Amino acid sequence: MTAPHGQASEVVSGMSAKLSNWIRTEEPDQTSASFPELFFDLVFVFALVQLSHTLAEDFSSAAAFESVLLVLAIWWVWINTTWVTNLLHTGREPVRLMLFSLMFGGVLMALALPEAFGEYGLMFALIYCAMQVGRSAFTVYAFRGVDDASCVTFVRITLWSLASAVLWLAGAMMELEARIVFWSLAVLVDYVSPAVRYAVPGLGKSPPETLDISGEHMAERCALFVIICLGETILTTGRNASEHMNSNTTFAVFCCAFLSTGFMWWIYFHHGQEKAADKAENTSRPESVAHNLFTYGHLPIIAGIILTAVGEDFSLSHAQEQGSLKDALAMLGGPALFLAGNIWVKLAAVRQIPVSHIAGIVLLVATTALIPFSATYVIQIAATIILLVVALWEYVALRRVSGATA
User: Fold this and answer.
1) Which residues pair with 88 in a beta bridge?
2) Are residues 261 and 334 in the same domain?
3) Is 328 exposed, middle or buried, given 0-12, 13-18 or 19+ CB atoms closer than 10 A?
4) Of 2, 13, 139, 371, whose CB neighbour count within 10 A is largest?
5) Looking at the structure, do residues 219 and 175 belong to the same domain, yes or no?
6) Which pTM was predicted?
7) How do residues 332-353 score in pLDDT, each as one tens digit?
């Protein structure tokens, strides 16, 4: 026996109304980061600590490249989850359960990180793929019958995630060299997909500006993640300092490491983060701007902070030793990568090149000339002074501009 047409219509209408409650609105209480999202972010503190410890223990060229792939994977899980929670209401139980499931997967993925290119490769790949595909498939269901354009966009995203998953899983079953090749291709597939608007044969490309993005929410989420990374740097520095606090030199290096973190916070939050938030919120192309500012633009900022933490580990544990190129690449390369990411974000947000940041990168590169003649702690102090110069330079420049326009 079949239900009458009117009764069936009521069932479909009721289901659509229920699903529509999962979608975020522009109400103030839904544009701010929610407690479940902040809880989710805590998982990535563990993942970042795992990664920085692993890299500090082995900073060879091979280990560094492997770490790059892992940073890209961690960031991709986090930023894509942020896109989904930007669109869905985390106060709804099904969405919250999805987020908690991703948290559990994130913990397992973090546990596998140190041996992702060893015996836990398959575990890492399985968890990564399950998180990526499962989240996208859930979002397809959330938009089904509510927003057809967004639903089809996430169908495309799910298909791209499945294509990437084939490479991740295939690589996990191979030896180290082949695994690196396959996982590099998998990362390439992941990162290219938004740039080509998730083009799929038969479905075509996702139309531009399909997703109803809240720029304010996206900017806040990325800013909070930057704070998490900076906090992880302080935690790592404090732990290492407690193990090596046996001389005045170590204390001086610890102070420099702490100040470096403070200067990075100032460089990012004093001007760039606010302008990025304004740009994302007031643009007529929120989806495109969000990809440029946050999906891609914040990646070098996060990677730079992690690499800086590794460099500070080196400077604390080998303060009096002769400087080496390997250690200097972390101590100087981390701040340089961080400044490069800020150049990207600030250029995209205000269409002005921060000259202070370019000068800072030049000074950091020039500091490599000191490596053969200096102890490790000297390189760390130089990096801290350069970040201070950049922060003061930008502060004075902005004051002059605001005074001239007043």
Assistant:
1) 23
2) yes
3) buried
4) 139
5) no
6) 0.89
7) 999 999 999 999 999 988 888 8
